[in-house]
Amino acid sequence: MRAAIAACELDPKLSVAIVSKVYPMRSHTVSAEGGAAAVTRADDSFEHHINDTITGSDWLADQDAVELFVKEAPAEMTQLEHWGCPWSREASGKIAVRPFGGMKIERTWFAADKTGFHMLHALFQTTLKYDRLVRYDEWFATKLLVEEGRCQGLTAIELRTGQVRLIAAPAVILCTGGAGRIFPFTTNAAIKTGDGMALAYRAGVPLKDIEFVQYHPTGLPGTGILITEAARGEGGILVNKHGHRYLQDYNLGKPLDVHDPNHPQKRTMELGPRDKLSQCFVKEMEKGNTIETPYGHVVHLDVRHLGEKKIDKKIPFVRELAKNYAGIDPVYEPIPVRPVIHYMMGGVHTDTLNAATPLPGLYAAGECACVSINGANRLGSNSLTELLVFGARAGQASGQFARDHAQLHLPALEAMARDEQERIARDFIRKEGGTERVSTIRTELNKTMEEGAGIYRTETSLKETCAVIARLRERYPNVRLDDRSLSFNTDLTAAIELGYLLDVAEALAQSALARTESRGSHQRTDYPKRDDVKFLKHSMAYRTDGVPRIEYLDVTITKWPPGERKYGN
Ligand SMILES: Cc1cc2nc3c(=O)[nH]c(=O)nc-3n(C[C@H](O)[C@H](O)[C@H](O)COP(=O)(O)OP(=O)(O)OC[C@H]3O[C@@H](n4cnc5c(N)ncnc54)[C@H](O)[C@@H]3O)c2cc1C
Fold first, then answer.
1. 140: helix, coil or strand?
2. Nearest CA to 126 among 291, 8, 250, 260?
């Protein structure tokens, strides 16, 4: 929506469409709780935000992209306020900011703990200003159309009728979000199946750094529902089964008195970066210090010392979620939590300035893209801001491209759309004799991803995962649908999404196998050290008829030479 607004603002003659497989307000962004980062406090600076982001990324982020992102972030956040986003404020009237993991100074703007919800509303209501902006809600994209060497639109299933429609366009921006559903235990909504990543990959665009997957340290057992980092930002602590604040044993700083009024501002331990905190959990589990539950091992997130008043004011949604989904009231009891798949650092390869992919006419922004500012580990609250900064840039650049390339090859596009309708009917709707169920293949995929490509990885585990994925890909064409109807056929969309999941999972596992080092979220127990000589590089996975081809691209280092990642007080 940010991209669409930018394109509309660029030129009153452009006509812009937003295609979404769900109503836009149901996009995963709606569930973001904690906040969005941008420099605002007097004691903060661009330099600090850049440093935190680059260190957090374990030096895999492109430094020109990070610099641009940090510098444009405050204006984008202020713009969003002018469009109606109700940022929480201090008593003085200044923007309130909270500490977030890996950020050494408070710079996370928030709207209580419903930040994504409010951001999405502010953007949605702004899109309504433009008559030229047409929404295709509940249209499901199935293919990017490439003609004369450039992207000239896409096909999408109109879910209400089941018809495949052609959307011809001189420029297309993918803003299709992440792919957490490759894994079994995730904070990600069921719609996050990597569709845009797979569509670009199939059109010949590489997936960059796709092996880097973020675990968030505090998910609710069973459901995977996220307990936002804001709970720790406000002063929550993590303890093991002995009531011990175990993070002090892992070089992340010393514990501070939780009753010290300055405690939340002392960015240490519990506010370490997500990759490290998730790895500490595994180590505690290996030591036998975690608590066994019917939903796996957990530790405790304790916010009781904050008191009811502060909990209700600052993190009311945490209380609501813990009550409804863990059956405990965090005012009186600690919350059981465990690491959970949360975010894809990698995605569709784009350039820094324009969010452009190597395929002319195709752009990507948001979680599906890899610019890259997140490198090997994203810092919490950088992602929502990334949507704004690079969404706006994608809108402007693609608008410009559309103006310069208005001519489309319509007869060819129409023929491709007819072929796509026929393919979907043949492979799914009319198909007889298939023996595989979508859910069986998906469950097996989830299982092998967790076992082989989770928090810790080895050559043996990854080879096994790659082999399982290859077998699942062979079985996939044999899926059969139970529902052959046309209207809102979720059996069909789940089958197509499974194809997307398999593509992204294969690129992920193969890229992880090829990266024989440990960096950020990618931890190889057989290669425990970071190897800057060989791997200070982005991986680029290209789709082929066989296993993906992995190439490497240099990381852009401008002013901040690689160093050791240090956290703590
Ligand atoms: C529970 C949770 C909490 C989070 N909290 C924070 C936070 O506090 N701060 C922060 O910075 N980040 C947070 N994140 C991460 C951040 O919210 C996401 O990275 C970001 O919102 C992704 O936005 P997006 O626009 O890229 O994609 P999404 O918001 O996921 O939207 C994707 C859109 O693409 C459409 N789409 C996808 N596939 C198709 C298809 N085949 N056809 C048509 N349309 C399609 C969908 O319908 C949807 O509209 C959180 C993530 C989660 C899961």
1. strand
2. 8
In a domain, 229, yes or no: yes
Q: For residue 223, what pLDDT is reported?
A: 92
Residues 6+ apart with CB under 8 A from 323: 329
Known catalytic residue at 232: yes
Tell me what pLDDT residue 263 has. Answer: 59
Helices (H), 191-240: 195-202, 230-233
Do 193 and 228 fall into the same domain?
no
Residue 527, SS3?
strand
Tokens coding 319: 């209380």
Strand stretches in 47-147, DSSP E: 97-98, 108-109, 133-137, 139-147
Q: Which of 566, 523, 536, 540 is nearest to 60 (CA)?
A: 536
pLDDT at 267: 62
Q: What is the pLDDT of residues 181-203, one digit of tens each?
A: 999 999 999 999 999 999 999 99
CB 56 within 8 A of CB 102: yes
CATH of the domain at 258: 3.90.700.10
Do residues 499 and 406 both lie within one domain? yes
Structural tokens at position 376: 């090997």
Instruction: Report d(CA 169, CA 360) in Å as an integer.
Output: 12
On whether both 275 and 303 belong to a single domain, the answer is yes
Question: Per-residue pLDDT averaged across 107-122, rounded?
Answer: 94
Contact 390 CB / ligand 1 (< 6 Å):
no
Distances (CA, A) of 511 to 207, 209, 346, 507: 10, 8, 11, 6
Please write the tens of the pLDDT for every residue from 217-255: 999 999 999 999 889 988 899 999 999 999 999 988 888
Q: Is the pLDDT of residue 88 over 60?
A: yes
pLDDT tens digit sequence for 499-543: 999 999 999 999 999 999 999 999 999 999 999 999 999 999 999
Residue from 2, 107, 232, 538 carrying the catalytic annotation: 232
Buried-state track 328-345, b at ≥16 Cβ within 10 A, e below 16: eebbeebbbbbbbbbbbb
The reply to whether ligand 1 has any atom less than 6 angstroms from the CB of 512 is no
Same domain, 373 and 496: yes
Alpha-carbon dihedral sign for residues 40, 44, 46, 50: negative
Instruction: Decide if 519 is catalytic.
Output: no
Instruction: Give the closest residue to 340 by CA, choosing from 523, 117, 180.
Output: 180
Last residue in a domain, options 339, 365, 386: 339
Q: Which atom of ligand 1 is nearest to the CA of 120?
A: 29
Cα of 220 from ligand 1 centre, angstroms: 19
Specify the number of domains making up the chain.
2
Residue 284 burial (10 A CB sphere; 0-12, 13-18, 19+): buried
- The pLDDT score that the predictor gives to residue 512 is 98
The response to whether residue 170 sits with its C-beta less than 6 Å from ligand 1 reads: no
